[in-house]
Amino acid sequence: MATAISDAPAMLSDGPRSAPITLILAHGAGAPMDSPFMQVMARGVAARGIRVLRFEFAYMAARRTGGKRGAPDREPVLIEAWRGAIASVGGAEKIVIGGKSMGGRIASIVADEAGVAGLVCLGYPFHPPGNPGRARVKHLEHLRTPALIVQGVRDSFGRPDEVSRYALSRRIGIAWIEDGDHSFKPRVASGRTESQNLDEAIVKVSEFIEGLS
Fold it and tell me: In CATH, what class is 3-210?
């Protein structure tokens, strides 16, 4: 079970505090840090001996007290939140950052400047659904941080044929999840289950992090 961190109440912690590398995850635009997807991914990676921390951006945390579904904060605010999360943990060289969709995208913006050990994006929003011309990849062309993007083959934010056209940094590896959507969920007709795809994503992320230590 995840536990709150006493000196950083906005974070949840899973896995051993003595782990050589800590993974910090941020949520996507519409669901909180304790959504089913975030719970499964965090606990699954933590079960493999990696410490996993989760935090919420201010607009999402405000929903817990105010009850209003406010829009995500502006990008500069989200970037500052990521900088604060990294600083609160310390030891950037032993930290991997990332998250679901928007959370991972913002992490990718600060990864190089923060000097973290690695970056993990769970369903990267390469472009808005139905609008591949509005790509969000310019900063990924020269990324220096070792990175793993775990992406569903059916992800409307970036499918294989679309992503193959981008000039991404050689530091970025992409693990494609068979028949997965933006949250790795497959169609029933595929013969795969959501649990299988999530388990595969957990293994990919864990192996990537283990390879950094």
Answer: alpha beta
